[in-house]
C-alpha cells in the first residue's frame, strides 16, 4: 500500500494521475468554482485524509482552493472547524473514515445542484460519457470500450464500469481490475493502487 504523505501542493498532480472519477469530478469542480457544497466537501475531504493529506496540509489546501472568493475571517470561523472536525479534532472527536463506493452510491443522494456522489450512478449518460472522455483522454471514443462502460452503467453495474475505466487508464488487462480481479469498491483503493503502479 502506498501511504506516502501528500502535501497540499501535491494534490493537483495526484488528482490528475490517480483520482477515481468521483473525486476527479469534485476536485475539478472545486478548482473551477472555488466552492463545493457540504456533502461534496465531506466526500472529497475524507478521501484526501485517506490518501495521506495531514490536517495542517488540509487546511492549507482548502484555504488555497477557496482563494479570494472567501475572506480569511470567514474561512477561519466557518470552514476550519469543519476540516478539523473531519480529522477528529473537534466535537466528539470521531475520526471519520473515507466513504466507500457503497456509501457514496446509496447515501445522501445528490440533487441537480450537487457535485458529490458517483458519476456512474448520478450523471446522465450524456454527461457521463463526455465527462469520462474529457477527464481521461486515453479513453477512446470510437472503440468498443466506452460503449461497454455505458452498457454496464445501464445495467446498474457501476463498480464494473469504474473498474473498467481503471484498467483502461492504467494499461491493465480486462478482468484484472485493481489486481487479481479485484473490482473498485472504494475510491481510496483506486488511488492507492494507482500510486503503487507508478512506483
Ligand atoms: Fe467513485 Fe466508487 Fe463511483 Fe468509482 S464506483 S466513481 S470509486 S464512487
Please report the number of helical segments: 11
Overall shape:
globular
Order of helices and strands: HHHHHHHHHHH
- Give the low-pLDDT segments: none
What ligands does this structure carry?
A: iron/sulfur cluster
Q: Kindly state the mean pLDDT as a whole number?
A: 94
The termini sit apart by: 11 Å
Our Rg estimate from Cα atoms comes to 17 Å
| Whole-number count of domains | 2
Residue share in helix: 55-70%
Strand content: under 5%
SS elements, strand count = 0
What structural class should be given to the helix and strand makeup?
mainly alpha
The main pleated sheet reads as: none
Note down, in words, how this protein is organized.
The chain has 199 residues and is an all-alpha fold. α9 packs antiparallel against α10. It binds iron/sulfur cluster (SF4). The site of iron/sulfur cluster has 14 residues, from α2, α6, α7, α10 and α11. This is DNA primase large subunit. Belongs to the eukaryotic-type primase large subunit family.
In short:
With 199 residues, the protein is an all-alpha fold. The chain contains eleven helices and no strands. The protein is globular, with a radius of gyration of 17 Å.
Topology:
Layout: H1 11-18, H2 21-33, H3 38-50, H4 55-66, H5 72-86, H6 101-106, H7 119-122, H8 125-135, H9 144-154, H10 158-169, H11 187-198
The protein binds iron/sulfur cluster.
Amino acid at each position: 500500500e502506498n501511504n506516502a504523505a501528500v502535501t497540499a501542493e501535491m494534490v493537483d498532480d495526484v488528482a490528475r494521475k490517480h483520482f477515481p472519477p468521483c473525486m476527479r469530478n469534485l476536485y475539478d469542480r472545486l478548482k473551477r468554482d472555488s466552492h463545493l457544497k457540504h456533502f461534496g466537501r465531506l466526500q472529497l475531504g475524507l478521501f484526501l485524509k485517506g490518501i495521506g493529506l495531514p490536517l495542517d496540509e488540509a487546511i492549507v489546501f482548502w484555504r488555497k482552493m477557496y482563494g479570494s472568493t472567501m475572506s480569511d475571517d470567514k474561512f477561519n470561523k466557518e470552514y476550519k472547524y469543519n476540516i478539523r472536525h473531519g480529522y477528529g479534532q473537534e466535537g466528539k472527536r470521531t475520526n471519520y473514515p473515507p466513504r466507500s463506493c457503497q456509501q457514496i452510491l446509496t447515501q445522501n443522494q445528490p440533487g441537480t445542484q450537487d457535485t458529490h456522489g458517483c458519476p456512474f450512478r448520478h450523471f446522465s449518460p450524456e454527461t457521463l460519457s463526455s465527462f469520462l472522455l474529457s477527464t481521461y483522454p486515453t479513453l477512446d471514443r470510437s472503440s468498443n470500450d466506452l460503449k461497454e462502460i455505458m452498457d454496464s452503467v445501464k445495467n446498474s453495474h457501476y463498480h464494473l464500469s469504474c473498474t473498467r475505466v481503471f484498467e483502461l487508464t492504467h494499461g491493465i488487462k480486462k478482468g484484472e481490475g485493481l489486481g487479481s480481479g479485484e473490482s473498485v469498491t472504494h475510491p481510496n483503493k483506486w488511488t492507492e493502487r494507482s500510486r503503487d503502479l507508478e512506483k
